[in-house]
Amino acid sequence: MATQTQTTTAAPSTLTPHRTIPRGPVTAPLNFYQPPADNSKPFNYVEEPPSGQPQRNFGDHPHPITIRDVRGKESSFNINTHAFAAIQNISSAASRQTFSDDAAIKCIYYPEVENLLLEHTGAKRILLFDHTIRLAAPGANRAPVNRVHIDQTEKSASQRVRFHLSPSEAEEALKDRVRIINVWRPLNPPITAHPLAFADSQTVPDEAMVGIEHRYPDRTGETAAVKWTEGQEWWYWSGMEEGERLLLQCYDSEGGARVPHSAFVDPRSEEGAGRESIEVRALVFG
Which pLDDT score, from 0 to 100, does residue 17 have? Predict the structure, then answer.
């Protein structure tokens, strides 16, 4: 396995053990793509931007969305069709302490993620290339992203394969099916605030996708922003528990299913409730 970037934060200490879990459908604004005022190519800097440059040059277009709950309907969704899957009853040897240390995450949690993906995708090979821990709290290093996006595009997926494999390995891998899948789980379950919303891939047309230059200090990748279009269907998974995993497919070279997603503010959440989560990103071959 290869690793490019890891971001970890300390576990929150202010969350109470008894929290009300919002369930069922909810209407909340999601932030969709708004183009740059000067119609220039949209970009986003991953780290501190150069002097005189904004972090990103495009804006947000909030739109109220009815977001339905997959709770009780988990088996109705298929990653090849909807671009997401809700997996339950997952055991783990990882403790809360595991997620405070990158080396422990790679040693203990990465093999579990690899086995999970092999079991639920039928892939021949899994390459985990990074992970991010997000914390909804003041001063957090990486907070939930409250903007509708997809982590990869066709262009960046090919770049990602070539970045992590040798030239000969990459050429061979790209002849077969390649997917990029995020494995998302809560670290302070149950999730009661800042849940993740995700769209049924079938309801979001390709025309809604906008390539965004994703500018690293040493290279430029590409992510996708998403425009609101009529007929999009959005879901979330209420009160995600420790033994539950959400698979989010960001790219598929064969079926094309890809999942727009975004954190959102649930108006029913208790004041002061936080959220801590980890997403592990994987190249899925075959």
Answer: 56
